[in-house]
Predict the structure of Malectin-like domain-containing protein.
Amino acid sequence: MPALLRLLLSLLLAAAAAPLAAVQAQPFRGYSYLLDCGGAAPTTDRRGLPWVPDDLYVSAGESLKLLDQGLLDPALSTRRVFPHSPSAKFCYEFPVDRKRRYLLRPTFFYGTYPPSSPPPVFDMIVDGTFWTAVNTTDDSLTGSASYYEGVFGASGRNMSFCLGVNPNYTDSGPFINALQVIQLHDSVYNATNFTNSAMGLIARTKFGSSGDAEKYPGDSFDRYWQPFLDSKHAVSSTHNVTSADFWNLPPPGVFNTALVAEQDAPLVLQWPPIHLQNDSYYVALYFADTLTENSRTFNVYINDYLFYEGLTVTSAGLSVFATQWILSGLTRVILTHVSGLPPLINAGEVFGLFPLGGYTFARDARALENIKRSLQNIPDDWNGDPCMPHGYAWSGVTCDKGLKPRVISL
Ligand SMILES: *[C@@H]1O[C@H](CO)[C@@H](O)[C@H](O)[C@H]1NC(C)=O
Ligand SMILES: *[C@@H]1O[C@H](CO)[C@@H](O)[C@H](O)[C@H]1NC(C)=O
Ligand SMILES: *[C@@H]1O[C@H](CO)[C@@H](O)[C@H](O)[C@H]1NC(C)=O
Ligand SMILES: *[C@@H]1O[C@H](CO)[C@@H](O)[C@H](O)[C@H]1NC(C)=O
Ligand SMILES: *[C@@H]1O[C@H](CO)[C@@H](O)[C@H](O)[C@H]1NC(C)=O
Ligand SMILES: *[C@@H]1O[C@H](CO)[C@@H](O)[C@H](O)[C@H]1NC(C)=O
Ligand SMILES: *[C@@H]1O[C@H](CO)[C@@H](O)[C@H](O)[C@H]1NC(C)=O
C-alpha cells in the first residue's frame, strides 16, 4: 500500500466583501455530488459551486457546528460526527453510472484541540475496498483542513464511501466536513484498469507558478493543481494552449507557466516532495512549449531511469504517462537537452495504485438487503458492502474470509 500524502487545503478566508460568482446549477456532468456534511441548507461557495446537505445520502451520525465560524469555507463550517462503535463502518451511498469512474475528495477539518485529545484517526473505505487511514493531527495543529483524493470505478448502481472505526487507533467517533464525488470523462485516467484497482492522489502540480491552485472552473472536474515555484527556472507562456484533446484533459491554465532548464544544464526537480514507499505508481507529465510556433526535444528521466527518450514538445503541447512506474524514497525528475531550446515542464500528477478489495457474494448481499427492508430499526451501520473489507462487516453479521465472502451467521 503506497503512502498516501495528506495534502493541505488552506482555509479560504471569507472576505466579506468578495462578490459571489454567478450561481451555476449544473457545473458537472453526470452523477456528481458536492455534500456539505452536517449542513442544514444548500449553500454556494465563492466559486459559485452549489453544495447540498448530506442527510439524503447517509443515515448515521449527527451534525456539529464548528466554533470558529466566519473563517471557513461554508462547506467546512459543519461536520458530521459518527458514533464510536469499534469495527463499524458508516457509509454514504450515492447513485452512480456503473460504467464510469469517479473522483472522490473527502475533506476533514477538526479545528483547534487540547493536546490531551488529538483528533480521531480512522479508516476510509470505498465499496469493499480499504482506501487509507485519515490522520488530521498535523494539519489541525497548523489550522488547516486535510483532503484526500481518490479515483474509483463504479461497480454497481450505488457507490459507497465509508468511514471505518478502526479499533486499533480510534477512541472517539470519525467525522467528515465535506465530500465531493465528481464523474470523470471516460478518457481521463483511462489507461488504468479500474475493474481491479483504484488510485489515490499523491501530488498534482503546476510548475513555475506561485499563485493559487488551479481548480474548477479552469479544471472541468475540479481537480486541484497545486503551485510549485522554483523562481530561478520559472517562465510564463506567451500563448494560450488548447488542451481539449490532451490525454487526461488537463486545464489550459497549467500551461501558462513552466519550469525551464538553464542553457547547457539539465533541469532537476525533486518531485513529488515526499518520501514514497517502494511500490508502483501512475505518473503523468504535461508539456507545452511556452513560445509560439516553436518546438524542443529532450529526454525525461525519473530517478536515473529513462522515462521518455527524445520527447519533442511543440507549442500545441502533449502529455506522457506510465501506468505502473516503480518509485521508492525521494523522486527526481530530470530533463536533459537533445535539441532546440532548453527542456521545460508544465505540470504533473502522481497517484498510488491499490487493488480493489472485492465484494460480498452477490446472492448473500441481496438476501441481507431484503432482511434490511423488512426491519423496523435498521442498525445504523447497515450500509455499504455487508462483509468487506474484512474486519468491517455489518454489526451482527459474520462472514467467511473468502475472495467473495459468504455470510456465515446473522
Ligand atoms: C442508493 O443510494 C440512495 C441514496 O443514498 C439510497 O436512498 C438507496 O437506498 C441506495 N440503494 C441501495 C440499494 O442501497
Ligand atoms: C488491528 O491490528 C491487528 C493486529 O495488528 C490487525 O490484525 C487488524 O487487522 C487491525 N484492524 C484493523 C481494522 O485494521
Ligand atoms: C497521527 O499523526 C500524528 C502526528 O503525525 C502521530 O503522532 C500519530 O501517531 C498518528 N496516529 C496514528 C494512529 O497513526
Ligand atoms: C483513452 O482516451 C484517449 C483520449 O481520448 C484515447 O485516445 C485512447 O484510445 C483511450 N484509451 C483507452 C485504453 O481507452
Ligand atoms: C481489467 O481487469 C479485469 C480483471 O482483472 C480483466 O478481466 C479485464 O480484461 C481487464 N481489462 C483490460 C482492458 O485490460
Ligand atoms: C489567453 O487567454 C486569456 C483569457 O482568455 C486572454 O486574456 C489572454 O489575452 C490570452 N493570451 C494570449 C497570448 O492570447
Ligand atoms: C522495490 O521492490 C522491488 C520489487 O519488490 C525490488 O526489486 C527493488 O529492489 C525494491 N527497490 C528498493 C529501492 O528497495
